[in-house]
Task: structure prediction
Amino acid sequence: MTVKTMTAAINEAIDQEMGRDDRVFVAGEDVRVGGPFGTEAGLHAKYGDKRIVNTAISELALTGIGVGAAAVGLRPIIEIMIMDFVSVAMDQIVNQMAKMKYMLGGQARLPIVVTTHAGIDSSSAAQHSGSLEAWFCHVPGLKVVMPSNAYDAKGLLTAAIQDDNPVIYISNKRCMQTSSEVPDESYALPLGVADVKRVGSDVTVVAIGRLVLDALTAAEELAKEGINLEVIDPRTLSPMDTTTIVKSVQKTNRAVVAHEAVRNCGIGAEIAATIADEAFDFLDAPVKRVGAPFTPVPFAPLLEKQYLPGAQDIVAAVRSLYH
Amino acid sequence: MSTQISNDTLIDMHRRMVRIRLFEETAGKMMEDGKIPGALHLYVGEEAVAGGVMVHLSDEDQITSTHRGHGHLIAKGGEFDQMFAELYGRSTGYCKGKGGSMHISNMELGILGANGIVGGGPPIAMGAAFGNKFLKNNKVAVCFFGDGASNEGSFHEAANMAGLYKLPVVFVCENNGFGEYTPQANHQAIVDVADRAAGYGMPGVIVDGMDAVAVYEAAGEAVDRARSGKGPTLLECKTYRFFDHVGVRGMGLTYRSDEEVERWKKRDPILLMEERLLEQKVLSAEQIKAVHDITSEEVLAGIKFAEESPFPDPSSLTEDVYA
Result:
C-alpha cells in the first residue's frame, strides 16, 4: 500500500492491464509523451509505438480505431484528452459503439474504454472544462464510470478494461491531483456498485466525482451543527447502484444530490427521480440538487469560482432541508 | 487485361450480381406491397461494384457496409433465408429482427455492420484495418461508402489516419451520382471523389462501376496493395442507382430525368456481364438463364422461410444491449 495520486493510480491500472493482456493498447493524442495529464507517463518507453499509439488530433477517427479494433478482437483504451472534445467523436461513441451489439442482434462484442478528463481546472474556459457524464448515461449500451479518488480510480479502470462492453471512464481533473492509499498489486472493483464514503444518519448526500470530496468537507462542517451526513459515491453512473442510494434514504429520510455538471438534466435529476420513485414515503423533505448554473463555464477566475459548485453549496442545500 | 480473369471468376461475379439483383427486385416489391416494414435502400444498378470487389475477399476479410447494404452482404456470402427474415423483422434474421435493412450484417462473414449513419463506416473500417495490422493477421478491411459520405468529416478523418499508418484498408466509393435526392454537382465541387486521395497520401483510382471486370481489376490491385502492407487506396466506382433512394418507385420526387435513368440502364452491369459471358463463350444463354432460375427459386424459398419464421419474443427487447 502506497499513497498515490489518482493520476498515478490510473497509470498503474493501464500499465498492469497492458502487462496482463497483449490485446490492450492505448490510442490518443500526445500519449507518446505520457498524455497531457500524465496518465500514460513512462508507458511508451515500456510498450512502444505499437501499443501506445500517438494519433492525430482527430477524435472521430481515434474513436473509430477503438470500434474497429475491438470488433476484430482487441481491447482498446481510447483517450479523449478533454471531455468537451467528445462532441467531435459522438457518432462513433453513440451511434456505433453503443448500438452495434444491439443492432446486430448480439453479434458484436466491443470491449472499449474511452477515458477522458472532465471538469473545471485553472481557467480553462467553456470548451475545456465540461462535465458531460449525463450525455452518456442517456445512451443504452454504454457504461459510465466516474471515480472520485485514487483507490477507486485504479480498481474501476481495471474492471473497465476487463469489461466486454464499451465503458466511458471519466476522471475529474481536480480529483486527479488528490492522493490516497492504493495497493501496488492489480485489483478490480466491480462496476455498478456504489460506495458509502461516510456513514451517517440524518441526510444522504449522493455526490459524483469531485463533489464527493466536497460532500465529505461539508459533512465535517455540518457535524458541528449536529447534522450527520451519509455520503454515497455511485462510482458507476450507468448502470447505477440505486439499491444502495434508496436504502440510505430510507434510513435518513432526506437527500441531496451533487455534481459539478450543470444542474439542468444532470445525472442528479435522475437520482432525485429514482429517490422520489422508490423512497417517496420515507422523505421528510424534497430532494435537493446541487450543480453548476445553466451557463457555459466562464474564464475569469472570479466567475469560475462563482460558477463552481462545492462544499458550501452542499451545506446550504442540507440546511434548507431543515427549514 | 480482362483475358487474365479466369472463366470461373467471371461466373462467380455474375452469380453474385444476379443474386443481388433478384433479391433486391423482390425485396423492393415486398416493401411496396407493405409486407416488409421500414425503408429499403436498394442496390439495383450498382451490382458490379460489390461483385467486382468481393471476389477478392475471404470470409476473414472485413467490410463496412452502408444503408444501401444488401448487395454487400449478398456478394460476401449472405444467405437469402436469414436476410429476408431480417427484413421481415423475424427472430431468425441475421440480427434477430433488431437491425432490419439498414443494419443487416453477418459478422461471421466479416461484416462489421451496415450503417444508417452516412459516413459511419469509414472510421470503423480504418479501425479494423488498424487491428489487422496490430495482429499481423494478413486481413484486409474494405469500406464501402457513397459520394455523399465522402463529404462527411468521418471520411476525412478515417482516410487521413489510414494514410498516416499505411493501414490495410480499401475505401471503395460507390459514386452513384446522388446523395439521397441531391445530385453530386449540388453537393461537392469536384467531379471525381478519387481526387481527394492525394490529400491522404494514397492512390486514387477511378473505374467504370458498371463494368464488373474493370472493378475486379482495380479492386484486385487495391486489395493486394493493402494486404502487402503498402497502405490504403481510394477506389472510386462510377455507378448509378436504377431505383429510387428508398424503395423502387420511391416518393416520386423530381430530381433526375427518365432519360438519364434510361441512358444508364443501357449500361446495366448485369447485361454487360452477360454479353461478355456469351461473347467469350464462358456461359451459354441457357446456362445464364439457369443462374437466374436457380436464384429466383432461392428468393422464393427465402421469402417462404421469412414468412414462416417467428416474430421476436417480447423478452428479447432488452437483450443484447450489454455483453
Remarks:
- Chain A has a mean pLDDT of 97.
- The longest helix of chain A spans residues 6-20.
